Amino acid sequence: xxxxxxxxxxxxxxxxxxxxGVWEWNSAKSATRGPMPERxxxxxxxxxxxxxxxxxxxxxxxSERSQTFHIDTxxxxxxxxxxxxxxxxxxxxxxxxxxxxxxxxxQREFHFKDHWSLSExxxxxxxxxxxDDLAGQIAVLDRVS
Length: 145
Known about the structure:
With 145 residues, the chain is mainly beta. It is built from one helix and ten strands, in the order αββββββββββ. The chain is globular and about 40 Å long. The relative contact order is 0.18.
């Protein structure tokens, strides 16, 4: 295979998706490892390499929980999650963003590895946990705006 052919298959920074927008959780297409929220809205501001994710979750009882995460798509960041420090490292694997986090608790350290991908038409964001403490959990979100 020629160098030109190899270059053709290599993802470039320009081929990386922009996750910016307002996204709503699609419960019919999602699978959770815990109680399902009644509603979840995720607002993402993505200006490579910075990504800010604001998540508002509404429980079955009507209670609302809000969290904001700051991510550096090529480095390491720390965020607060439930009063604990969440250490996050992220990287691009082709057009997929892999966000890996560690959450220490008194019992043990939890490991999360979230694979983000955007549908070809840009209308669906999939966040899949394949091989971590939430393995099998998949959040499918539809673009609102």
